[in-house]
Amino acid sequence: HFPEAIRGSATSILAETGKPFPRAFFLRRLLEQFDREYGVFRVSGFDPIIARWKAMTNMIGRRIIIRTIDGSHSGVVIDFDQDGFLILRNDEGGEMRFFSGDVTIM
Questions:
Q1: Which of 19, 56, 85, 101 sits CB 3.0–4.6 Å from 68 for a disulfide?
Q2: Would the pTM count as exceeding 0.85?
Q3: Which residues contact 63 (CB under 8 A, 6 or more apart)?
Q4: pLDDT tens profile 54-99
């Protein structure tokens, strides 16, 4: 059961599959993957990680709203920089960098 504020958009593995999912299995796989990625980072730095991240995202070129502690901003995602920041061309034509925030794809 989800809080009222997110009930319309939240989901879970149980809700999607009708089957319970063992949390210990999920956590083990998550930590294994984290360990692999950390090994890549230690050997090669962040470049291969951000390249993979860019290849997997569907956000570049999409219109979004990003909500941060400083407020909401809208525009088109133009890239992720080498530090992992999201680069947004805002509605006024300026570029903004975001390290974190809640993103909604429009």
A1: 101
A2: no
A3: 74, 75, 76, 105, 106
A4: 999 999 999 999 999 999 999 999 999 989 999 999 999 999 999 9
Tokens representing 1?
Answer: 């059961």
Residue partners of 87: CB distance under 8 A and separation at least 6: 77, 78, 79, 80, 81, 95, 96, 97
Q: Are 78 and 96 in contact (CB under 8 A)?
A: no
Contact, 62 vs 78, CB < 8 A? no
Record the tokens describing residue 9, joined without a space: 């958009």
Rg (CA), the chain: 17
